[in-house]
Amino acid sequence: MVLPNYPPKPRPGDRVAVVSPSAGLPALFPHVYELGLRRLREELHLEPVEYPTTRVVGADPRDRARDLTAAFADPTITAVLATVGGDDLITVTPHLDDDVLRANPKPYFGYSDNTNVLNHLYRLGIVAYHGGSVLVHLARPGSPHPLTFDSLRAALFTSGWYELSPAPEWGDRPNPWTDPGSLAYEPEMLAGDGWRWQGPEREVRGRTWGGCLEILHWLMAADRVPTAEELAGSVLVVETSNELPTAQEVFRIVRNMGERGLLASFPAVVVGRPKAWDFDKPLSVPERSAWGEAQREAITRALAPYNPDAVVVFDVDLGHTDPQLIIPYGGEIRVDSRARRIAVRY
């Protein structure tokens, strides 16, 4: 296995960039954003530094790329945090200055549409971090989830192995950002039922690659993903977004990864717990349970012709549900189906 290139870590008191390379939602929900910034300062003891497009909706992709490049170029900035996801970051990454990014590697934190940046950094040889959002996780109503915060703190400040844990409770029904009062109380949570394992009993150790499944489909269409040879021996880590793709859509995306020759590269696949509730699709708890089962079946069915011997673990809390565990992107992971354990190296 090629050793990953982990950027240096920040220390408490450092300046960190807060950027919106995807959607400029801090402009629409400043009360949520300010709460996230306050927790970044008071609980993580990091000083956020904003850029011209951080609070701008619909900023030109070239301007967003310029801000992201500037954050990497600034020697006083020791990490870069995305405010939130969106749906057009694929138009931003072509404008990044790759020479600057290679010369100034820094930990980058983001998920969802930020899969575009994570994949871009992976192809430059820089380990990044899938997870962490100033609006979603730092500004979680009530308080940050303990599992999320412990994982984020470890990913920011430490470099050793970190054991992931199944969440004793989880949620996918967020409080409405349109109501400032909703920040005062915790979101709805459901009892956790652990991870679901399938495949042979063995330990797999490799580098991670993947992200938001729908964004990976866009990247494949744009021909911006690594080759099967480059990914050989890696662990695929995927999750689905708040757009709630159907089981059939998920099946087709994973099947298309197989047709591209990618699925056979992965001795293990780690799948995030699927989000199954949104404001325009308020499913009941039984409907959400059935939704999750259909998603698991779709991925199992898609994997079967291409990689029937993969170790697969479902319902890991790493995507659009709450809590969110941070996963090093391009970094090391151990998936042990015998001991039912997953560990990542931050």
From TrEMBL:
Give the domain of life: Bacteria
One matching Pfam family, short form?
Peptidase_S66
Residue ranges of every copy of the LD-carboxypeptidase C-terminal domain listed in the record: 205-335
List UniProt keywords, sorted A-Z: Hydrolase
Ranges for the LD-carboxypeptidase N-terminal domain?
Answer: 16-131
One Gene Ontology molecular-function label: hydrolase activity
What InterPro entries does this protein's entry cite? Carboxypeptidase_A_C_sf, Class_I_gatase-like, LdcA_N, Peptidase_S66_N, Peptidase_S66C, S66_fam
**Transmembrane segment boundaries:** none
Entry keyword annotation includes Plastid: no
In its keyword annotation, does this UniProt entry include Hydrolase?
yes
**Family the UniProt entry places it in:** Belongs to the peptidase S66 family.
Q: What is this protein called?
A: LD-carboxypeptidase
Organism whose genome encodes this protein: Micromonospora profundi
